[in-house]
Amino acid sequence: MAKKLVEVRNLKKHFEVGKGKILKAVNDISFDVYEGETLGLVGESGCGKSTTGKTIIRLYRATSGEVRFHGDDVHQISGKNMKDFNRKMQMIFQDPYASLNPRMKVEDIIAEGMDIHGLFKGKERQRRVFELLETVGLNKEHASRFPHEFSGGQRQRIGIARALAVNPEFIIADEPISALDVSIQAQVVNLLKDLQKKHGLTYLFIAHDLSMVKHISDRIGVMYLGAMMELAESEDLYDEPLHPYTKALLSSIPLPDPEVEETRQRTILTGDVPSPIDPPSGCPFRTRCPEAMDVCAEKKPQWLEVRPKHYVACHLFEPESQ
Amino acid sequence: MSGTLLEINDLAVSFSTQGGEVQAVRGVSFAVGPGETVAIVGESGCGKSVTAQSIMRLIPEPPGRIKHGSIHLHGKDLASLTEKQMRNVRGKQIGMIFQDPMTSLNPTLTVGDQLTEGILTHEKMSQREANKEAIELLHLVGIANPDERLKQYPHQFSGGMRQRLMIAMALMCKPELLIADEPTTALDVTIQAQIIDLFKEIQEKTGVAIIIITHDLGVVAQIADRINVMYAGEIVEYGTVKEIFYQPEHPYTRGLLTSVPRLDGDRSQPLIPIVGTPPDLFAPPVGCAFTSRCKYAMKVCQAHDPEVTELSEQHYTKCWLQDDRVEKPY
Ligand SMILES: Nc1ncnc2c1ncn2[C@@H]1O[C@H](COP(=O)(O)OP(=O)(O)OP(=O)(O)O)[C@@H](O)[C@H]1O
Ligand SMILES: Nc1ncnc2c1ncn2[C@@H]1O[C@H](COP(=O)(O)OP(=O)(O)OP(=O)(O)O)[C@@H](O)[C@H]1O
Ligand SMILES: [Mg+2]
Ligand SMILES: [Mg+2]
C-alpha cells in the first residue's frame, strides 16, 4: 500500500455565528490521503467540503483535531518549514471567475507563487510560465492577457497552471469544474488526470457531481452536515454502498440513459438538510433516514472500518445493534 | 401530433448591446403537444432562456427584438395579442418557473399573497376560495403545514422549498403549459430527485404539458418525451428521448453524450471532450456554427449553413454529414 501523505484526525472546524451560536461546519472527521491517489469528497451544499479543504491547507485554523502532512502537524508548522509546506500543498478554487485577480496579467497570476518562493527568476520565470501554459492546453500568447479575456474553462486552466507553478505534491481541487459547461468539464478533468500521471500528484477532489467524482477518484468520502458518513474505494462505494445516506445519494443521481431510468428503483429522501447550527442529536442523518432507529437519536455512530478499506458511521453496522 | 398546443416557427431574437447585435436565437422551430414534456438542452448562452422568454413575451424591448418568426398557442398568434390579453395567457394558460427562484419571488409579500395574486386577477374568486386553492397546491408540491406556510415570507423557506413554491405558483391557474427554466440546477441531487418526481406526479394528475430547460442530460433522460438540442441560437437536433440518447446524429449531440461520465460507467474509459468554445453570437459564422469544434468538419460546413434533414417522423438534424453525397464517418 502506498504511503500516507495527508492524515486527518478528529478534525473540527466550528464558526461563531453571532449571539453565541456555533456552526459546526466540520465536526470530527478522520481520513487519510495516500500518495498518488485521488480522494473524492462529495456531499450536498453546505455539508463542509470546502471548509475541510480550507482547514487542511490552513486557510482556516482548526478548532480541534489534527492534520498531518508527511507526518508533520500542519497547524504547528513554523519558520522555514512553513514556506516549504505552502509550496507543496496548493488549492484550485470553486469559482474560476472570482479566483483570479482581474487586474493582473495571466503571466503574473501564474508566477505569483514562484515569485513568493523565489523559485524561477528572470528569463527562467518567463520560460516556466510559457511551459505551464502549454501544459494546461493554452499557449504563450495568452501570457500577456487579462483574465476577463478568457472563457470559464480557460480561466480554470489558468488556475491549474498557477497551482502547478510551484511544483506541488498535493492539490486540493474545490469544485474545479462545477462552474463549467458539460462540454468543457471533460477537458479539465482529462487535464487533471494527465497531470497526475505525469507529475505523480495527489488530489483531494471536492465536488457534488458524484458521476464526475466517481470517474476521477480512486476512493470517495461522503459527507453530510459536517460529518463523514462513509469512505470506500470508488467502485466499492458505488457497487455496495452501506450508509443509507450514500444509498439515497446514489439513487438520486439521474443517469443519462432513458431506458435505465424507466425501470430504475429509486429511494427519494423527504425533507431538507437540517441547520448545522442546531444539528440533530446522535446521527446527523437520522431525521431523513428511512432506516432510523431509537439509538440513532441517542448516540453518535462510530467511524468503523467494517470491511477492508470500507469505513462507515452508522448504527446499522455497529456490533451491538446487529 | 394530435392537436398542437404550442408551435414556434423560425423564431429569431436579437439584443442590441454596446458591442453590437447579439443574435441570441437564430431561427428556432418546434412544437409541443398537450400533456407532453419537451426538453431544451445546450450549453450556457446558447439561447434557451431567451427562447422561453419569447414564448411568454417577456423579452425586454429594447434592447431585445424579435426579428422574425411566430409563436402560436392553440393556433393563435401570440404576437397579435394586446399586452392585456397576453397577461391573461401568462399565468392562466402558460405558467413559468424562472431560472433563479429568489429574483422571481417578492420578498416583501407573504407566500399566500403571492400565490393568490394571479388567480384573484384572472378569476372571479374570493380570497378565501383562493387561499383554499393555494393550500391544496402547497400540499400537492409537498410542503407540510400549508396553512401556516401561507403566512410566511419566502426567506423563511429553504432552497428546495422555494423551488416547490415556484412550481405551486406557476400551477395556480391550472395552465396547460408549464415552462421550467433550469428548475433543479441550483438544488442538491436529493432535492432535485424530489422535484423531478413532483413534476411527473403533477403531469399525471393535471395533464399539463412541460417545456423543461436544463443542461443535465440525466434529468432529461428521466423526464422528457422529446428533446431539442440547441447550439449557438439554433436547434441542431430534435428527436424523441430515445432517438437522441441512442441514435444521436449531430456531432454536437454525440459530443455532449460522450463528454459526461456515467455513474454506472467504467472509470478507465476516458471522457471525450468537445474541444474549443462556442462561437461569438455577435458575428455567428456563415456556415454551421459548430464547425470550429467539430471533429468531422468539412469544407462545406464553413461556407454554407446546412439544411434540416428529416431522419424519421420526429427526428431532425441540421448537419452536412446527412447530405447524400457525404460518407458518414461514424
Ligand atoms: N467563514 C465562515 N463563517 C461562518 N460559517 C461558514 C464559513 N464558511 C463556511 N461556513 C458554513 O459552514 C458550512 C459548511 O460550508 P462549506 O462551504 O464547507 O460547504 P460545502 O460543502 O463546500 O458546500 P458547497 O457544496 O455549497 O460549496 C455551511 O453551513 C456554511 O454556511
Ligand atoms: N437582456 C439581454 N441583453 C443582452 N444580451 C442578452 C440578454 N439576454 C440574453 N442575452 C444574450 O443572449 C444569449 C442567449 O442567452 P440565454 O439567456 O438564452 O442563454 P441560456 O441558453 O439560457 O444560457 P444559460 O444556460 O447560461 O442560462 C447570450 O449570449 C446572452 O448573453
Ligand atoms: Mg464548497
Ligand atoms: Mg438560461
Automatic annotation (TrEMBL), chain A:
Entry superkingdom: Bacteria
Gene3D superfamilies: P-loop containing nucleotide triphosphate hydrolases (3.40.50.300)
Domain ABC transporter positions: 6-250
Cytoplasm in keyword set: no
Keywords in alphabetical order: ATP-binding, Nucleotide-binding, Transport
Molecular function in Gene Ontology: ATP binding; ATP hydrolysis activity
InterPro entries: AAA+_ATPase, ABC_transp_ATP-bind, ABC_transporter-like_ATP-bd, ABC_transporter-like_CS, Oligopep_ABC_C, P-loop_NTPase
Alphabetized Pfam families for the sequence: ABC_tran, oligo_HPY
Biological process (GO), any one: transmembrane transport
Family: Belongs to the ABC transporter superfamily.
Protein name, entry field: Oligopeptide ABC transporter ATP-binding protein OppF
Lineage start: Bacteria, Bacillati, Bacillota, Bacilli, Bacillales
UniProtKB/TrEMBL annotation, chain B:
Keyword Cell membrane attached: yes
PROSITE patterns, alphabetized: ABC_TRANSPORTER_1 (PS00211), ABC_TRANSPORTER_2 (PS50893)
Domain spans labelled ABC transporter: 6-257
Coiled coil regions, renumbered to chain: none
GO terms of molecular function: ATP binding; ATP hydrolysis activity
Subcellular location: Cell membrane
Keywords from the named record: ATP-binding, Cell membrane, Membrane, Nucleotide-binding, Transport
Statement: the UniProt record of this protein carries the keyword Transcription: no
Gene3D superfamilies: P-loop containing nucleotide triphosphate hydrolases
Listed GO biological process terms: peptide transport
SUPFAM superfamilies reported in the protein's UniProt record: P-loop containing nucleoside triphosphate hydrolases (SSF52540)
Cited InterPro entries: AAA+_ATPase, ABC_Ni/Peptide_Import, ABC_transporter-like_ATP-bd, ABC_transporter-like_CS, Oligopep_ABC_C, P-loop_NTPase
Lipid bilayer topology: Peripheral membrane protein
One GO cellular component term noted in the UniProt record for this chain: plasma membrane
Entry-linked NCBIfam families: oligo_HPY
Homology family: Belongs to the ABC transporter superfamily.
Name of the protein this chain belongs to: Peptide ABC transporter ATP-binding protein
Organism: Salipaludibacillus keqinensis
